[in-house]
């Protein structure tokens, strides 16, 4: 037997160097690895047919599918965050009420704080009304997108800002100076909040994030009802130019109106008469 030595080749990796006078194997034979007689080809060594390749492509994750899953967000976390902001804003309202110094005329000092009581009740009812409608809106959402969350953040920005115009209005009512400006300023904050609220609804509606059981009649009724908010609040704000108390009274009426739940009544099918039942169409 002729001895065989192995040498490294830059082109074929490792190849056999035969002694002179022996026939060198072809490149195909030299490049093959020796196969053990007991070796059996596994399923991975066998070529795949068309059906197997199709199943692998179907089971493989697609980057577009991952993007579709991450682009839609469940509304649970956003609703919980919104509830926290509503709670903090309501809590900040009572902080604006100053504690009287006390003394023999404590009752008179408590009565002198009536403008703070008016502002507190007004803003508490306003935040509560926004929270009720916000909760009703999110009950009809199955998912959210990034733009809807931005609109919701803008709404929360307005809610968290509300204690400041409340304090301004209460101070103006206490001193009797600048009541017109304070009432108009408070109304403008309400109008901007109504616009942001409609932006959340319109973004969710345009993005197809409403639940399947929400009927077109219900969608139309909710859209019209939400759209009335900024318009009616704008009218109440304009009334503040005439009289501040007239504007405040209109605010209270509108808050009570939007607090009421308004669902479209579904038309019931009338029972057919006996004569119509007997007729064959």
Strand order within the widest beta sheet: 1-2
Number of helices: 12
Gyration radius, rounded: 37 Å
The biggest beta sheet reads:
2 strands, antiparallel
Number of strands: 2
Going by helix content, strand content and strand pairing, the class is mainly alpha
Overall outline: elongated
The portion of residues assigned to helices is 55-70%
Strand content: under 5%
Q: Average pLDDT value?
A: 79
User: Stretches where pLDDT falls below 50 for ≥5 residues?
Assistant: 4-19, 56-70, 264-270
**Elements, N to C (H/E):** EEHHHHHHHHHHHH
CA(first)-CA(last) distance:
102 Å
Structure description:
The chain is mainly α. The protein has a domain at 72-259. It has helices spanning 27-31, 50-59, 63-71, 75-95, 106-111, 114-138, 146-161, 163-175, 179-206, 216-239, 244-259, 274-278, and strands at residues 5-9, 13-17. It is elongated, with a radius of gyration of 37 Å. Mean pLDDT is 79; it is low at 4-19, 56-70 and 264-270.
Explain briefly what this protein structure is.
The protein is mostly helical. 63% of the residues lie in helices and 4% in strands.
Task: Outline the secondary-structure elements.
Blueprint (H helix, E strand, L loop, with lengths): L4 E5 L3 E5 L9 H5 L18 H10 L3 H9 L3 H21 L10 H6 L2 H25 L7 H16 L1 H13 L3 H28 L9 H24 L4 H16 L14 H5 L3
What descriptors fit this protein?
mainly alpha, 4% strand
């Amino acid at each position: 037997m002729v001895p065989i030595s192995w040498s490294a080749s830059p082109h074929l990796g490792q190849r056999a160097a035969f002694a002179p006078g022996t026939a060198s194997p072809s490149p195909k034979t030299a490049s093959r690895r020796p196969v053990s007689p007991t070796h059996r080809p596994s399923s991975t060594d066998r070529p795949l047919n068309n059906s197997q390749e199709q199943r692998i492509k179907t089971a493989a994750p697609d980057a577009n599918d991952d993007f579709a899953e991450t682009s839609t967000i469940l509304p649970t976390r956003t609703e919980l965050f919104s509830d926290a902001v509503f709670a903090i804003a309501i809590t900040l309202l009572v902080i604006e009420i100053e504690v009287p110094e006390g003394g023999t005329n404590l009752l008179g000092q408590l009565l002198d704080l009536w403008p703070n009581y008016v502002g507190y009740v007004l803003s508490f009812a306003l935040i509560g009304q926004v929270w009720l409608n916000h909760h009703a809106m999110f009950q009809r959402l199955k998912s959210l997108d990034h733009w809807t969350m931005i609109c919701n953040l803008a709404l929360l920005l307005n809610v968290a800002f509300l204690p400041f115009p409340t304090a301004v209005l209460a101070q103006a009512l206490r001193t009797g100076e600048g009541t017109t400006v304070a009432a108009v300023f408070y109304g403008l904050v309400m109008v901007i909040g109504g616009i942001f609220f409609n932006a959340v609804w319109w973004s969710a509606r345009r993005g197809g994030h409403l639940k399947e059981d929400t009927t077109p009649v219900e969608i139309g009724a909710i859209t019209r009802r939400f759209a009335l908010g900024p318009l009616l609040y704008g009218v109440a704000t304009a009334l503040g130019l005439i009289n501040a108390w007239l504007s405040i009274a209109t605010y209270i009426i509108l808050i009570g109106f939007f607090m009421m739940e308004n669902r479209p009544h579904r038309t019931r099918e009338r029972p057919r008469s006996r004569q119509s039942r007997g007729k064959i169409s």
